[in-house]
Amino acid sequence: MKTNAKITIDCVRPSEHTVNPYLFGHFVEDIRDHMEAMLAFPLKDMDFESETESKTAVSGSWRAYTNGRNTRYAMEAPAPKHSGRAQRIRILSDDEAYAGITQITSLQGPKDYAVRMVARASIELRYLMIEAVDRRTEETLGQLRVELSSHNWQEYQGQLSITRACADAEIRVYIPAGHPRWVDHVSTGMLWIDHVSMLPVDSIAMVKREVVDMTRELNAGMMRLAGNYISAYHWEHGIGPVLERPVMYNEAWGGWTSKYFGTDEFIRFCRELRVEPLICVNDGSGTPVEAAQWIEYCNGSVDTPMGALRAKNGSPEPYDVRYWEIGNEVWGQWQVGTCTADRFAERTISFAKAMKEADDSIVLLACGHYDQDWNQTVLDLAGEYMDYLTLHLYHGYGPFGMNRDTPAEDRYKAIASYPEWTRHYIRQTTELIRSQSKHSHVKLAITEYNTMYYPNTVRKGLPNEHTLGAAVANAANLNEMIRCSDMVHIGSFSDLVNGWLGGCIRVGDYYADQYCGKEPGWSGLPLEIYGTPTYEVLKLYANRDIRRILPVKAECGTFSVSSHKKTPVELDALPDLDIVAGTNDDGSVITLLIVNRSLGEVRAELELQAFEASGETTVYEITGNFYDDINSVFQPEQIKCKEYGVSAEELQRGYALRPSSIYALEFRAKPESGGVE
């Protein structure tokens, strides 16, 4: 079905406020496989922290590698000051065998890896081998000989050159059978390994270079460090020499909290990307003093205790982190330290006072909710202590009473109504904020948002959060955030890499966050790194030159959502086209962002009032053949943003907008016109 539309942009009335670049921010969280996918280490259990998964006492992802009848394995305490445990291997000389440990992984190549190992050995063991092989062919991909020089704990470093990429590789750390034999006696043939890691030499802040490069293209503005785990996270455990950082259980999500991506690594990541860091402090199990010390660590001079500690850890210059958030979803039962709104307000005041005392120039965010009763209490009691109230907006089937048995088109329309819900919650919260002078200064930060299809506890194949339809919903939601940018200054898409729902950057073929799904590596393409359709949207939006928004009117068709539940917003006649327009600082570029939410083509006529455009308009298009189209390891670029030029005559005749698609049109002023009249 094809329909017609007319879009009119008033180019002479730009908004008084500017659109904050932090609106296009992102979010990193230690959740599920987020850190594992983002960080560049190909090995797991590098500190032998996990319980054995077999009858042999070998840690976690490691396995025994020996053809010795009498080889014995055990777990022991680690080297002094180190965390995790040590792997002990006892080799009997008379077996004349090889013995060590091995781990299955995937390796990029050709590439050089920096190898780091902490080990000790009985004195007759002179060397060991670190070897990478193709599991299917036994081809050697790289080999490093490590000379063992001490019976005491010692750190060894080297470089392992991998000749080619291998999706099904194995890393072996072992004493080879060809090692000179010894007389078996007391304390002979014993090897202890405390740590083994491999890091590509081209990684940045321990992050995969490909992830850094893709994130850089997102032009994020701001990067948030937070999530459910933060309410049980103590920042001091994530600084200093990484081998001396403690292994901490991730109380929110299970497994181990990543000790390899702490404060200093996060700041380095942000600096590499030239984005503003936003850090959420632990108000669940932490204290105001602890939060203040974190601020001092980041912002204090070397004359302060924490500033001196930062300098000792290699960064004498302050990080100057301005944005700090108190509390993450404290209203949720899943959150460590969950509490009532009045109790959280009390905590906010105590945290804010301590944090401001550490640095009075910081900007404070406090945990808000789409439930206005929560917001009312927090604002009334603690509004004067905060600069921003936060909202987390996840849009899914739940409010509509839908499930996977609901017809696909109805489900798509429900998800495409995302901006209507966002508008509702922003308006409610804005009215509440402006209702009293003592907290009328507060602005909004949507520090998490994404599509969230239900039920999300049983995955069958690829989650819907990766589809073109999800990209349509997220684009329309961004349009609403831009329309409300006088109040909404900060946005954080959830998540950046893999993680819980739909990380916009995907590493490998592990799509499902919950309880059912295929094992990682099932596709044979675990090294593939690509962007989802929503990645394309986020990159498109953040790289447009929109400083002020313009009034825009659209005459177009409508659609309705068939909800099985009563909803707080009207869903009877939603416009097919979700549109926002803006201009750059000098008015020489007009940008029109259009989301065609409908299931049919829309032919749109465009009128720019009081703006003389040059002959050709640049069009960016994100589209596909079907709203459930995806990017995957098999087709990583099926949905890509395409750029092309369109003549003014073609636009005047009516421009065809494909179903379930996203567009950005850039009109440049004729050189002699100077822009807006």
TrEMBL record:
Residues 447-661 form the Alpha-L-arabinofuranosidase C-terminal domain. GO terms for biological process: L-arabinose metabolic process; polysaccharide catabolic process. Belongs to the glycosyl hydrolase 51 family. GO terms for molecular function: alpha-L-arabinofuranosidase activity. Gene3D superfamilies: Galactose-binding domain-like (2.60.120.260), Glycosidases (3.20.20.80), Golgi alpha-mannosidase II (2.60.40.1180). Homohexamer; trimer of dimers. Pathway: Glycan metabolism. Its EC number is 3.2.1.55. This is non-reducing end alpha-L-arabinofuranosidase. It catalyses: Hydrolysis of terminal non-reducing alpha-L-arabinofuranoside residues in alpha-L-arabinosides. Keywords: Carbohydrate metabolism, Glycosidase, Hydrolase. It comes from Paenibacillus glucanolyticus. It comes from the Bacteria.
